[in-house]
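Supplementary Methods. Inverse-folding protocol.

Structures were first reduced to a discrete structure-token string of length 190. This string, shown here, constituted the complete conditioning input.
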């Protein structure tokens, strides 16, 4: 969710400052097919499966990890783009915590409650995947690298409630920077 907010804010801000959407056509993206495949696979995992998993290293988590590896390769190949290093750092942080915890991003029941999103789980117990996310419920005590998980909460009454990680914040800043700078000065993006 935070990436969508960053993208939207960057596009609106850039257009208000005289940017042009046509500048996106000037961006030289390497291996673009790779990122399309990553998003298709991640979308399939995120939106097709929910409920209780078999625990760490469930096959869906392994597929998610592989998709993250491909995303890291894509970002490395495109490190010449504005904001790519920030996005890469954010993805690497998320990848690290996902691998450390067996394939999904841990989130606590308490964080989901604070965000008003407890309705996204059938049963609030460990190793239940949160609907329409990469998250799985895991207690803070059982979570490795807890401080890198979805620890930040945007609670109601904000119209966009969310839980997100420090990696999401870095990736969001990178996405904002990429779109804002590219739309304002498309030729700078090599």
């Amino acid at each position: 969710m935070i990436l969508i907010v960053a993208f939207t804010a960057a596009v609106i801000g850039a257009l208000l400052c005289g940017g042009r959407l046509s500048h996106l056509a000037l961006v030289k993206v390497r291996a673009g097919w790779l990122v399309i495949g990553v998003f298709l696979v991640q979308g399939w995992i995120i939106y097709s499966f929910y409920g209780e998993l078999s625990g760490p290293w469930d096959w869906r988590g392994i597929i998610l990890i592989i998709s993250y590896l491909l995303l890291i390769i894509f970002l490395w190949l495109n490190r010449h783009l504005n904001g790519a290093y920030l996005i890469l750092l954010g993805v690497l942080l998320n990848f690290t915590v996902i691998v450390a915890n067996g394939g999904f991003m841990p989130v606590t029941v308490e964080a989901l409650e604070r965000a008003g999103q407890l309705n996204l789980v059938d049963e609030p117990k460990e190793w239940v995947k949160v609907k329409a996310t990469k998250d799985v419920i895991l207690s803070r005590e059982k979570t490795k690298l807890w401080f890198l998980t979805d620890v930040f909460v945007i609670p109601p009454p904000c119209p966009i409630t969310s839980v997100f990680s420090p990696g999401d914040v870095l990736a969001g800043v990178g996405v904002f920077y990429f779109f804002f700078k590219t739309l304002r000065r498309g030729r700078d993006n090599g």
